[in-house]
Amino acid sequence: MQVLEREQVQQLQQGKGLPDFRSGDILEVTTVVPEADRKQYTYKGVCIARANKGPRSWFKVYNVFPDVGGFVQHFPLYMPDIVGIKVVGRLPRTKRSKLYHLLQDEGPKHIYQANIAAPK
């Protein structure tokens, strides 16, 4: 079973070209929303968690919106609606694999979505 999962992950990685990232990286995730006439949306935030579980791998992106507050988005890594993942930066001094402690602080230092241009 593990061999089949490993082959499937290799096949999925060849088609996507996903970058290497870990928790603490600031990501721009571009997704296609089928319900909105296949429009592309870019979601930017800090990766607070990542789980490598073969084809069931996932990651969570956290961002603070000025009007709404903190927001966590869960993405399956090999979801067909993900167009691309881009590593923009890195949080300094992150030593943990899960950064859920950032959810308690919704200050302005965690606002990453400001000034995002529409994808072309």
From TrEMBL:
The upper taxonomy is: Eukaryota, Viridiplantae, Chlorophyta, core chlorophytes, Chlorophyceae
UniProt organism field = Tetradesmus obliquus
Q: Per its UniProt record, what SUPFAM superfamilies does this chain match?
A: Translation proteins SH3-like domain
Q: What is this protein called?
A: Ribosomal protein L19
State the family it belongs to.
Answer: Belongs to the bacterial ribosomal protein bL19 family.
Record-linked InterPro entries: Ribosomal_bL19, Ribosomal_bL19_sf, Translation_prot_SH3-like_sf
Q: Which UniProt keywords apply?
A: Ribonucleoprotein, Ribosomal protein
